[in-house]
Amino acid sequence: MPRIDAGSLREHRAQRLEKLIDAAEAIMAEGGIEALTAGAVSARAGIARNSLYRYFDSIDDLVEIVVMREFPAWVEAVAQAVAAETNPHAKAVAYVRSNLEQAASGSHGWRTSLSRGALSSSARQRVREMHSCLTTTLDQIVAELGIGRPELTTAVVQAVVDACTRRIDAGDPPADVISYACDAAERILRV
User: Fold this and answer.
1) Cα 55 from Cα 41, distance rounded (Å)
2) To the nearest 5 percent, what fractions of the chain are helix, strand and coil?
3) Cα–Cα distance between 88 and 51 in angstroms, integer?
4) How confident is the model at residue 90 (pLDDT cuts 50, 70, 90)?
5) pLDDT at 65
6) What gap in Å lies between CA 175 and CA 172, rounded to an integer?
7) What is the pLDDT of residues 141-157, one digit of tens each?
8) Which domains does the chain carry?
9) Which end of the chain has the lower number of beta carbons within 10 A, N or C?
10) pLDDT tens across 43-66, in order?
């Protein structure tokens, strides 16, 4: 019977899973996808290599989890920022600002680069589906504004967010990019 380092087997497994994900994330942040091997992950996590496969079917599964790890907190931060506002214009600006603050505060750049090349096509589809929940929030705000051509408006505002996220990932000063993006969104949304 294996020794468990927690109050219950469930807690033990959750702790080990977290160690493995942390290890994989650190390895990829330091050395990219090329540095990620089962041996490297298990050594860094302090877990036997064969134990890794009790948690993941493959290294590809582990990469997908790392790429999407921050996304639920990102979505929650955007939802809270939007909910804190009372009028649709302020909600739209909060949507833009919050998305860019999340990009600036996390590890979006290297996660995005991983998602473009290291994920399977089905995993990339799951990432797109997760992103669509953010766009749904923007769709609702634009509908609330009553702007003509709402689909186009949503697409243009989201394009500003996406372009400015890339600028933050490229190293532009986040405060400048966020200010620019919020101003741009306000101009786009004037009725």
Assistant:
1) 12
2) 80, 0, 20
3) 50
4) very high
5) 82
6) 9
7) 999 999 889 999 999 99
8) 9-67 (1.10.10.60), 70-188 (1.10.357)
9) N
10) 999 888 888 888 888 887 887 788
